[in-house]
Amino acid sequence: MDRPSYEGDGLVNLMARLGSALGAPAGPYPPLDTGASLGLEEARTVILWLIDGLGDHYLARHPDSALARDRARGMTSVFPPTTSAALTSVATGLPPRGHGVTGWFMYVHELGAVTAWLPFGPRVGRGQWVDLEPESARLLEREPLWGRFEAETHVVQPAWLVDTPYSRATTGESARRHGYQGLAGLVETLSGIARAPGGQRRFVYAYWPELDALCHQHGVGSTAAQEHFRAIDNAWQRLLTEVAGTDTVVLGIADHGLIDTAPERTLHLADHPELAATLALPLCGEPRAAYCYLRNGAEADFQAYVREQLGHVCQAVPSEELLAAGWFGPAPEHPQLRRRIGDWVLLPADGWVIKDRLVGEGAFGQVGVHGGVSAAEQRVPLIAARP
């Protein structure tokens, strides 16, 4: 397993590079080498467009696309390579060890519950913690890196997302917020910001979620995903045309890539009651990287079961071992991190997932998955243009 880079070749390092270009005080993480000069230090507007799920391996399948043409280099995401962890790293410039967001499902000790972090609600049900207990919103709060930029900042997200508790808590109250509808609305909003009069420098963070959603539903190689990629590629080209002459640098990145699984490569915890009996909590994290909280005295039984019954398709690694090896990034460390990574991490083989089911949850039906240690999940592109 090759862990993600925090030493110069990852998402965290890209954000350090942007911080350097936009006047933020130097932080502890070295900046990414972006190769040829992009003019980041001089550009009037810098747009960072995050396309959820656009892994570097996926982009390589479309060598004739404009996005592939403008690819500057590859880099790594974070561990686990999943939206909640990676988006928080982009917003804060910190690795998961520093910001404490370690997967879609996390055991949040302060709430005493397994929590879906981005919706910020209990794992089972449709409620939000902020509705049940308004004070809980403070648990989401992270200082956005761009709050230290010497630039006017804008956050551009789907209209349904832009004012959610997670978005407001991580993107900053000082940023100008813009909701949009569809790819055409995204391009119109971004180009409008770039073309607006005024001499102050601008940083724009934009997010597009639909490629990831389609890959989850239909698969990485599906017709639906391929057609949507072409729509994104066309939107990229339209955006470059719209901002031409405005002294704008446009960067495209992703939070992770995906791989496909199948029903016959799904380990259902209900089919392994002896393994389930060793657990004190439901599985947390991701189906491709599941945090296991063990009952007192159950460690030997847990290890033996995984080794003897699942060892051909799944390995178990002590969480402390991954932490010490730098998978979650270097210190400083979020005070709740160790409570959020369990005792052991189950890492299924490529194409495999492990999943439990709680009362009220539907059957697991994802085709495209992410969160594991494969290069296809871990590697993301840096796409850059200065039209």
**Spans of 5+ residues with little confidence (pLDDT < 50)?**
none
Q: What fold name goes in the CATH topology slot of the largest domain?
A: Alkaline Phosphatase, subunit A
> What is the CA-CA span between the terminal residues?
38 Å
Main sheet record: 7 strands, mixed
Category by helix and strand content: alpha/beta
What Rg, in angstroms, do the CA atoms define? Answer: 21 Å
Q: What's the CATH first level of the largest domain?
A: Alpha Beta
Net shape: globular
Fraction in helix = 25-40%
Number of H/I helices: 14
Strand order of the largest sheet: 2-18-9-1-8-6-7
Q: Report the sheet-strand fraction.
A: 15-25%
Number of strands: 18
CATH architecture of the largest domain: 3-Layer(aba) Sandwich
Question: Layout of SSEs?
Answer:
Elements: H1 11-21, E1 45-51, H2 56-60, H3 66-69, E2 71-76, H4 83-92, H5 96-99, E3 105-108, E4 113-116, E5 121-122, H6 129-132, E6 152-158, H7 165-171, E7 176-180, H8 182-195, E8 202-208, H9 210-218, H10 223-243, E9 248-253, E10 259-260, E11 266-268, H11 273-276, E12 284-286, E13 289-292, H12 299-310, E14 314-318, H13 319-324, E15 344-348, E16 353-355, E17 368-369, H14 375-378, E18 379-385
Parallel strand pairs: 1-8, 1-9, 6-7, 6-8, 11-16
Antiparallel strand pairs: 2-18, 3-4, 4-5, 9-18, 10-17, 12-13, 13-15, 14-15
